[in-house]
Amino acid sequence: MEILIFKTNLVDKKHVTKARAYLKTLQGILKWNVDLHDIDKVLRIEAEQLSPQTVELALTQAGYYCKELE
């Protein structure tokens, strides 16, 4: 299992709900959450065999900014 952390522009529950539809299409996600109180609106994903680029692409297609934090 690996933990992936991303900076996003998800600002409210409506955005998180929309993003959920895109994240559900990705294989390997075990658990995820978004910290809407953090300045970087951090998306944290626990996954197996999931590349950060795949997550970035999925959220970009949903119309959001998503960049892995290193």
Overview of the structural elements:
The model has no long low-confidence stretch (mean pLDDT 97). This protein has helices spanning 13-23, 52-61; strands at residues 2-8, 29-35, 42-47, 66-68. Strands 2-3-1-4 form a four-stranded antiparallel sheet, with helices on one face. Strand 2 and strand 3 (42-47) form a beta hairpin. Helices cover 30% and strands 33% of the residues. It has one domain (2-68): Alpha-Beta Plaits.
Secondary structure: elements and pairs:
Blueprint (H helix, E strand, L loop, with lengths): L1 E7 L4 H11 L5 E7 L6 E6 L4 H10 L4 E3 L2
Antiparallel strand pairs: 1-3, 1-4, 2-3
List keywords for this structure.
2 helices, Alpha-Beta Plaits, alpha+beta, 4-stranded antiparallel β-sheet, 70 residues, globular
Write a brief structural summary.
By secondary structure, the chain is an alpha+beta fold. It has two helices and four strands.
Portion in strands:
25-35%
Strand order of the largest sheet: 2-3-1-4
For the biggest sheet, the summary is: 4 strands, antiparallel
Question: Might you state the CATH topology name?
Answer: Alpha-Beta Plaits
Report how far apart the termini are: 17 Å
The pLDDT mean sits at: 97
Per CATH, the class reads Alpha Beta
